[in-house]
Amino acid sequence: MIATLLLLLATPAETLSPRYADCINLIEADLELGRIAAQQWVGEGGGAEARHCLSIADFKAGFPKLAALRLEEIAQRNDAGDDYVRARLLSQAANAWLEGEEPKRAEDALNQALALVPDSAELQLTAAKVYAAQERWHEVITAVTTAEDGDLVSAETFVLRGRARLVFGAHEKAAEDVVAALSLDPTNVDALVLRGDLAQVGISIDVFLDTSQEE
Fold first, then answer.
1. Mean pLDDT of all residues in the chain?
2. Which CATH number covers residue 54?
3. Within a domain: residue 94?
């Protein structure tokens, strides 16, 4: 979940250097060697790209808090990019803080991102997770709905909104979110768990999503 978000590039693909791509590819192929290579690149003065690659290596190596700190530091650098890029870096930091079980620090990073790009629907996907970690269910619903209005959706955040709606007893609406989540990801474990929780309160969700057929 969070690893996928962290692996989203912080800058447009056409502006990234070949070395950045090589760094990411090496991390994917051999994490230990990739992390060493990223550290060497940083030591050579590789700038924001080198540090971003190293933050990904740190995260994948099981050091999400270190990754979060690096991402926040990159967002302050002159070579980080424009406000959108900085906001995305801070959003990635928030996700890393969540992985490190630091929801308050995640919210701090999120708020910095929102201060840079307040109308970003993308940031609302992160916001939903930050609020859910603190069981702020009203805000979860608002964040997911705002992201959806901006044509950004994910199975994960549909599940979070469904969970929030279940808390408030809006069972039919929660069921709609389960259907939406399973439509995007038929094997999403959290959606299936929520489906089971709704069944226990008398809401049966009859969803058939055949993913076995081939052209």
1. 88
2. 1.25.40
3. yes
Examine residue 187 and state whether it is found in any structural domain, yes or no: yes
Which residues, other chains included, contact 182 with Cβ-Cβ below 8 Å and sequence gap of 6+? 155, 188, 191, 192, 195, 207, 209
Question: ∠ CA(52), CA(128), CA(73), 5° rounding?
Answer: 25
Work out how many domains the chain is built from and give that number.
Answer: 2
Q: Which residues, at least 6 apart from 102, have a Cβ–Cβ distance to it below 8 Å?
A: 65, 68
Measured distance CA(159)–CA(156) in Å, rounded:
5
pLDDT per position as a tens digit, 49-73: 999 999 999 999 999 999 999 999 9
Shared-domain flag, residues 147 and 174:
yes
Question: Residues 163, 108: one domain?
Answer: no
Three-state DSSP class for residue 192: helix
pLDDT of residue 7: 40
pLDDT value for 17: 82
d(CA 15, CA 44): 20
- Contact 110/130 with Cβ under 8 angstroms? yes
Residue with tokens 């050091």: 63
Q: Are residues 5 and 104 in the same domain?
A: yes
Question: What distance in Å separates the CA atoms of residue 1 and residue 108, rounded to the nearest whole number?
Answer: 20
CA dist 186 → 29, 85, 121, 179 (Å): 28, 32, 24, 9
Whether 141 maps to a domain, the answer reads: yes
Q: Residues 158, 99: one domain?
A: no
212 token code pair: 């076995």
Measured CA to CA, the distance from residue 157 to residue 186 in angstroms comes to: 14
